[in-house]
Amino acid sequence: FSQNGFDYPGLETAGGSVVYPESHAAARSWGGSNFTADGKAVWFSYLVNMGPDGDGGLGDELRVATFVDTPSAGDLGAVDATLLTVMNDGQVMIQGMGTDEVAAGVVETNQTYLLVGRVTFSDTPGSDVFNVWLNPEPWVEDPGTPLLSKTGDYNASGDYFSFRSTSGMQGAIDEVRIGDTYADVTPIEIPPAVLTINSDGAGNMVIGASNLTTWATSTLQDRGDLVIGTWNTLGTVTGVAQTNLTLPAVDPQRYYRVISNP
């Protein structure tokens, strides 16, 4: 975990991360926004590390409730909440909304994972959808097929994010995020665009661009002087893989750039 993690007022922290408690819950408010209204799709994410086992056995767990109405629930399993649970026997599961939805053998202790969730609240009873991704691909518009997907009634009673561990299991969570899109909750720094300029052997310039965001429109531009004049658009370039534009080698400019607009 980053030693310069987010601030978590009111929660026990170590090295910039939240230390999750054993046998009681820690919680803080999201801020009171109307996250759980019908028709709303809300994304959240956090980093989690399942630390050393507390009692030497498997089956210990970290339970996370995303929307509960109290910061002091002693046992999340006993309150009206839908839980995202990570276990030290390798399981990730959605508890609540009817029968548990389980993915086995997907996590290990002493490893850091990014968990991303999306809850789509429906005005039709039994039609809320809870999706969970484990280490999804960053820097994309949509994370693809979820690890877990559950349809039912998501029990959301408030705006607290609450979590606890069992059997003395150690570990931490960090970078807790909530937002309206996948990009809002993805803690990834996007690398800069890369430009290459070559010749095709026939007197033309071949300009290549790569590392471009997939959810934005990117254009290649040139300019002869940074003090006077304006940037001229040469064409559209897309995608993470390199895209080439071939330009006649007449009146070459001194400066080239890629600009992305959502």
What's the short story on this structure?
The chain is built from no helices and 19 strands. The protein is mainly β and 262 residues long.
Protein traits:
262 residues, mainly beta, 7-stranded antiparallel beta sheet, 19 strands
Distance between the termini: 30 Å
Instruction: Name the shape in a single word.
Output: elongated
Strand tally, please? 19
Given the structure, what is the number of helices? 0
Name the average pLDDT: 77
Radius of gyration: 24 Å
Based on helices, strands and strand pairing, what is the structural class?
mainly beta
The proportion of residues forming helix, as a percent range, comes to under 10%
Q: Which percent band covers the strand fraction?
A: 35-45%
Poorly predicted sequence stretches spanning 5 or more consecutive residues: 1-5
- Biggest sheet, spatial arrangement of strands: 1-2-13-4-9-10-11
| H and E string | EEEEEEEEEEEEEEEEEEE
Largest sheet: 7 strands, antiparallel
Structural features, described:
The protein is mostly beta strands. Helices cover 0% and strands 44% of the residues. It is built from no helices and 19 strands. The strands form four sheets. It has a seven-stranded antiparallel beta sheet with strand order 1-2-13-4-9-10-11, with no helix packed on it. The protein has a six-stranded antiparallel beta sheet with strand order 3-12-5-6-7-8, with no helix packed on it. The protein is elongated, with a radius of gyration of 24 Å. The model is unreliable at 1-5 (pLDDT under 50).
